[in-house]
Amino acid sequence: MKFQPSNIANMNAFMIVSTFFCLWLAVYFGDRAEALLAYLFVFSFGIMHGANDLKLIQRTTGMSSRSFYMRALVSYLLVIGIITVFFSFVPILALAFFVLASAYHFGEQHWASRTSLPSILRELFFMAYGMLIFFLLFYFHADEVTGVIHDVTDFSIPTAFYFYGLLVSGLTFLVFFAWIAFNSLLLTHIIEELFYLLVFYVLFQSASLIWGFSIYFVIWHSIPSLMDQVQFLSGEISSKALWSYFKSSFLYWIISLAGLGILYYIFQGQDKLFFSILVYFLAAITFPHVLVMNKVNRI
Ligand SMILES: CC1=C(/C=C/C(C)=C/C=C/C(C)=C/C=O)C(C)(C)CCC1
């Protein structure tokens, strides 16, 4: 079965409907079931969307030899190693850098095809959007986020910080957005984009931290990104192309989950929140992925 462009256009409708469906589902679940489902989301689609990076590197560079694959794999593992060291020596800086890189990555995923802003401004806009998403989430779950950050870095962030962060990132985004619309650099609709922000407001305000994050991460980031990657790798979005994506990411996906299992085992006795382990894990696998996707988006 081939997906037509109209189906791809329906993606936005799918994202909105499934967001509210997931919010409604939460009414029926207790906290534990909700958290379990959230982890299932993150560990399935969330990890899977980053599991084809090596193939994407090969495709963006046009090099497909075995030795290139090995070099890419070694650089990949090196980046993961550097991040781990960074987190052990200066955790607060590493975390700040991780959130900034993630914000950029989320912004890039959402906006790369929706604005024709020139470079530098483009990157700053991606970042402002992503920071707005994170601060919106953090603002509504301030105490819990402060707890996780304290667990990871030993730093206590005052909860007012999230309010000011939300204010600054929100204003920066809105000024940028108005300027983009005014200069006809917007390839989408103003109302549509503002409506999505309203959806995120409702989502983060009503869902728990883990549920809100996983719904955003999977439905609004991982699934659209996975579709873009399938289109890039196979030239079409069809069941065959999706199957081939699944097959080539399977090994990396299993290895990542095994890595998470090992992290969990190491931290088990240290009284860490499972969330903190998740932050370390996401940070380790996210950095190489952000670099790869940035390269894909430049093609
Ligand atoms: C700091 C912090 C969080 C940050 C998570 C981030 C920054 C995730 C980024 C993931 C990416 C970019 C994945 C790749 O595609 C959580 C878990 C919400 C919980 C509270 C504390």
Automatic annotation (TrEMBL):
Keyword Lipid metabolism on entry: no
Primary enzyme class: oxidoreductase
One Pfam family in the UniProt entry: BCD
Membrane topology value: Multi-pass membrane protein
One BP annotation, GO: carotene catabolic process
Function: Catalyzes the cleavage of beta-carotene at its central double bond (15,15') to yield two molecules of all-trans-retinal.
Family per similarity comment: Belongs to the Brp/Blh beta-carotene diooxygenase family.
Xref: HAMAP family: Beta_carotene_diox
Official protein name in the record: Probable beta-carotene 15,15'-dioxygenase
Source species of the chain: Lentiprolixibacter aurantiacus
